[in-house]
Predict the 3D structure of the following.
Amino acid sequence: MSLANTQSVAEIKARNKELIDEVLAVYPEKTAKRRAKHLNVHEAGKADCGVKSNLKSIPGVMTIRGCAYAGSKGVVWGPIKDMIHISHGPVGCGQYSWAARRNYYIGTTGIDTFVTMQFTSDFQEKDIVFGGDKKLAKIMDEIQELFPLNRGITVQSECPIGLIGDDIEAVSKTKSKEYDGKTIVPVRCEGFRGVSQSLGHHIANDSIRDWVFDKISPDAPPRFEPTPYDVAIIGDYNIGGDAWSSRILLEEMGLRVIAQWSGDGSLAELEATPKAKLNVLHCYRSMNYISRHMEEKYGIPWCEYNFFGPSKIAESLRKIAGFFDDKIKEGAERVIAKYQPLMDAVIARYRPRLEGKTVMLFVGGLRPRHVIGAYEDLGMEVVGTGYEFGHNDDYQRTAQHYVKDGTLIYDDVTGYEFEKFVEKIQPDLVGSGIKEKYVFQKMGVPFRQMHSWDYSGPYHGYDGFAIFARDMDMAINAPIWKMAKTPWKTVPKPTLMAAE
Amino acid sequence: MTQNADHVLDHFELFRGPEYQQMLANKKKMFENPRDPAEVERVREWAKTPEYREKNFAREALTVNPAKACQPLGAVFAAVGFEGTIPFVHGSQGCVAYYRSHLSRHFKEPSSCVSSSMTEDAAVFGGLNNMIDGLANTYNMYKPKMIAVSTTCMAEVIGDDLNAFIKTAKEKGSVPAEYDVPFAHTPAFVGSHVTGYDNTMKGILEHFWDGKAGTAPKLERQPNDKINFIGGFDGYTVGNMREIKRIFKLMGVEYTILADNSDVWDTPTDGEFRMYDGGTTLEEAANAVHAKATLSMQEYCTEKTLPLIKAHGQEVVAFNHPIGVAATDHFLMEVSRLTGKEIPEELARERGRFVDAIADSSAHIHGKKFAIYGDPDLCLGLAAFLLELGAEPTHVLATNGTKAWAEKVQAVFDSSPFGKNCHVYPGKDLWHMRSLLFTEPVDFLIGNTYGKYLERDTGTPLIRIGFPIFDRHHHHRYPVWGYQGGMNVLVRILDKIFDEIDKNTNVPAKTDYSFDIIR
């Protein structure tokens, strides 16, 4: 059980500060100095969380972060279903990221849809020595022959590409011409670029701008008649069907979703997005770039929203409706009212089982703040959170709209820090990724993967919240956690500071 | 509305509701610029044809759905088999996130490993500073007994010299001068994960035996009666290592397992996270030089390691992931020959029980055709076992298999009349396998989790044996080596066969006359 409930905010702050000092003590001096800037105790009223972010990870500390390739191929481009994404370089990157992210889609895989496949140039030593451009060109020919219904190709660069001086842009241009203007997108998302997945998101966004938007002929006839209610969902990867349980709400309130970026998305949807009246942005971190671009170039406003938990969903539906006329505003109210009984029933069932439970989070670039409301709807409290690859604007949003006074903040947390924090704070639940899951479960702490929804989901929207609530309950209240301690081994009771 | 608070619908039910089905149909029609369904159907059928197969097999550049990973994964796998050892991968950090995730998804265990987190500046100036800082941080934070260094392709392309870097890091005080930091260059663009295992194992043994990179005297071999045992990269390492130890104990063999990762990937949930658990002690690793002989269960995981060991004067014997009666017989008799220990009656009885089990069930397997893919040694082990069962390993495919491997598989085919119509496919991928399954269908497919896509597309029932297995739990706890391990493989195959028979005979009043209660 959490100790937090019995402590005052001042006590919690003191304990958290002490904890930070304690973990810093293990580092060599130079490292301690650098890490200190990424750890803090949140002070209510501050404009941000008081931590540095989006800086290089320190060698040897066991960062949880990935790379730019993961941000581009794994996140932004990979889910575009009717294009073939070549993992360009050695075999590993594509292999480890093969179908691992649960971007759901509908389509005939291998024929007109390719998401859960691993296309790789499988670089050998000779490709490193002599360059891989000829091989890449040949790969594109072979793709055209064997997968004729593909709508386009992207080249997802792995580390060696940028180091050996390959010209993937030239190959892409040549082949595009050869195949009647086919969309072929070279992406410079080599893993050594930047400090995390984040730069890969940005590079991928820019590649859509340069190689998709800028190639659309201005006189090309639209594929559909525009309406005043056309919106695009930006930054939903349809993990476990998230974008679907979101889309249904937008449509029920009277909007028309013309594109999904990028979960269950298609090239046609990317191309149609500049026709949207509003871009609704879920994952700000990974797709704010393209949203800003569309605002500047096409005058499309964008609006962040949060579809985790009924409070934030209602707030978001109203916020989105605010961009439209009364018909849509009424639609939003109708949708909120329609789902109210379901939400009441979910909360009535699960809140009593979860009330007062504490959570520590460490996720990517959005969820460390976005899911907090959903936990609060269930009466739970987030006592620590941090971003794997967030920037300062993420921490600002976190401080201003989400976290409570005294919350422990840890940016790019190291394996050591996270373990120690959880060990001392003893939350009732930890939400993080696959690499963290078993560490905490061994410690007897319930855990949910908050990248993949632990193979469950969707968690977005009203339908998703029912699953979210059920999953948090089954994680925390599974009988097995009472059995972690061996009964015949007695453990001395922890001495509480307050007991003195 | 389909969702329900009392009976929460999961993704696989939720989206089948009419609201969602309608929504998805509209999305497709209105916005996806979909292909004509007739055209999709035409291409889908065309992709099953011999004509497509021919084009598919003519591929020279593109790889689709390969059954192999890259070297550093094998390096990490080998390194954690040593006591208190943390793998340190020099290069880009994203790679390490991938290895850790991949291994955790298979074993359902934590997988600790660090990166030197090289970025653009290191690409220009080299990663020496990353090595210096990285070793110091890892040493202080995680208090390992040993740090085993390997490389990603980034470090290899820019040509970082591990030996020199580690030396410099020690001079700068990152770790004590006498601290063990073995290393291996493991470029991802050479070989596969089994090569990385090999290079790392060789690197660690060289470190301990050959003077710790010039910082200590080379060990003088003083032969004793022990044997060394190397498992290779093996998804069943937890169950297999324990089974091998049990067998050695029964035989009274004195042994050293080199890279014993059976504990670190099977730690208890008891309130404590063990970053390190079990493993070959560093002392044992050093003393292994004195052993009489070294056995490798996987030839292709030890192609460089065994010659090194042999050069130190030991006899070396390599197997090919032995599964089944004859392969286990051969393994045990070799152990017996090398150690002079007799094979005890208990093992003879286990053998008899295994033969008994095969005899009981053989009618259901005899003559069935199988396709197998996986790592080179596993393919050899499984092919030999299937032949022993009277089955036909019709297609045997290893993306990381070489020509020499293919010849070896052919020799296995040639050793049995059941191997007559069987073919081996070195260097091919699972998209090739897809064509094989369409044009030359078999009864069952044996492979890892990715085989489920082949099962879906071709209807060939998948028996999950290999690495990784992500979508079934706990298989890695059960051995496939030894007679008892063979029994596990037999049962796994039989269960699938019987499930399929039942599935094909369960339509009431139509096919269920064959829905037999006794089989």
